[in-house]
Amino acid sequence: MRKVLIFLPTATLIIIFTLFLGPISFAQNSAFSDLADERNLNREILSTTGLTLADYFSSKEEFMALRSLYNESFGTRKTELAAQMLGKAKDVLMAKLGATSTYLGNLYVRVVETGRATETNLTAFNKVKSDFNASIAGFETKIGEAETLADLSAVSIEINVAIQTAVGGSRQLLTTLTVARGESMVERIEERAVVILEHINASADRGGNVAQVQQTYNAAMLSSEAAKETYAAINADTTSTADSLKSKLQRANQSLRNTYEGLNDVLKDLKVLYSQSPWQIDESKFER
Fold first, then answer.
1. What is the Cα–Cα distance from 58 to 44, expressed in whole angstroms?
2. Is residue 111 a contact partner of residue 126, using CB atoms and an 8 Å limit?
3. Residue 182: which residues within 8 A CB-CB, separation 6 or more?
4. Any coiled-coil ranges, and where (predicted)?
5. Is 208 helix (H, G, I), strand (E, B) or coil?
6. Distance (Å, rounded) from C-alpha 107 to C-alpha 177?
7. Contact present, 49 and 94 (Cβ < 8 Å)
8. What pTM did the predictor assign?
9. Which of left, alpha, beta for 194 (phi over 0: left; psi -120 to 50: alpha)?
10. Is 165 exposed, middle or buried, given 0-12, 13-18 or 19+ CB atoms closer than 10 A?
């Protein structure tokens, strides 16, 4: 049976990571580049510090490309590619560790900035983050000592378990951050909705047929209200299970999406109405 690296699903990674640019430690940029290259089979990533999801995907793509070449090669070339695959596979696992660490650190900072997380939740998550970061050194040693892809496959399984544990421990803070973002977007949308309504009224004053536009606008605002109420309910929820909270978040986010799409349709219709009969808005109606 073939031994392969076990990757987390792309969709899962996109949900659990937040993209931030950061420095990468490359072997060829090291003062000991020749020695590093020789010992690490042309590895590029020698440190997990500052790595992101983009680094993980890049390393993974390079590994998959090498594997394709390996499967099509023979003789000496196949042997050379096998060594390169091992080095690149080590890069993949290092990038996975680094991207997870970066995600956890950024999540903590961004949630603290919202001012909404409880001290208990922050303390609990800080331990999750610290425990994961403390495990990195051990994983780095295992990665460095691995001599075959089969060895790395076993390490990859361990890393995935550690990542899933850390992500599970971050669920509460991620919910807090999602709600904070959602409520902020609702507030911004409703500020702009006031201006949009004035345009609808101005068009009506000039004889425009705004019945359908008004209906679309009303539906969008009902969706906005539903999103606001659901986000508020999540904030006050202290007993729901993780699955229940996830369902509520999805419902609130969908309501927010419906609001945006509805108002976008209103703007398109207003553009047509304006081309038929231009109007002016009394700017004194809006706060400066």
1. 12
2. no
3. 227, 231, 252, 253, 256
4. 246-273
5. coil
6. 8
7. no
8. 0.65
9. alpha
10. middle
What six digits make up the tokens of 250?
């999805």
- HSE at residue 73, side-chain half, CA atoms within 13 A, is 14
Structure tokens at 150: 């089969």
45 phi/psi in degrees, rounded to 5: -95, 115
What's the sign of the alpha-carbon dihedral 176, 182, 184, 190?
Answer: negative
Sign of CA dihedral 30, 32, 33, 36: negative
Q: What is the C-alpha separation between 173 and 5, in angstroms, rounded?
A: 30
Cβ within 8 Å of residue 240, ≥6 positions away: 248
Distance from C-alpha of 150 to C-alpha of 67, rounded to nearest angstrom: 14
The residue ranges of every structural domain in the chain are 38-285
User: Tens of pLDDT along the chain (288 residues)?
Assistant: 444 455 544 444 443 343 333 333 333 333 323 333 334 456 777 788 889 999 999 999 999 988 888 888 888 888 888 888 899 999 999 999 999 999 999 999 988 888 887 888 888 899 999 999 999 999 999 999 999 999 999 999 999 999 999 988 888 888 888 888 899 999 999 999 999 999 999 999 988 899 999 999 999 999 999 999 999 998 787 777 777 888 898 999 999 999 999 999 999 999 999 998 888 877 666 554
Residue 87's CB is within 10 A of a number of other CB atoms, namely 19
**Share in percent of the chain as helix, strand, coil (round to 5):** 80, 0, 20
Q: How many residues make up the chain in this entry?
A: 288
Of 107, 103, 96, 106, whose CA–CA distance to 48 is shortest? 96
CA 133 to CA 130: how far, in whole Å? 5
